[in-house]
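Marked as duplicate of an earlier ticket. Keeping the data here for the record.
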Amino acid sequence: MDKNPIFSERANHYDIFRKVSLIIKNQRPLTLEAKLEIVELAYNANKSGKRRRITKEDYIELLIKIHSDK
């Protein structure tokens, strides 16, 4: 995909997908900071998060709570 660039709105989505994939690939296990970075990158992709059932702030709070319980 990197050799054949996309020239539309999907180019931005692909760039986000690529960054998130690299974070997941290179960091095992995922830290809280990595998960928060993924949320920041990907939450508003695809129609600016209009159909999300949970807000980004609520999702971040949930991640923090899950990591503090460990």
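See parent ticket for discussion. Residues 34 and 45 are 17 Å apart (CA to CA).
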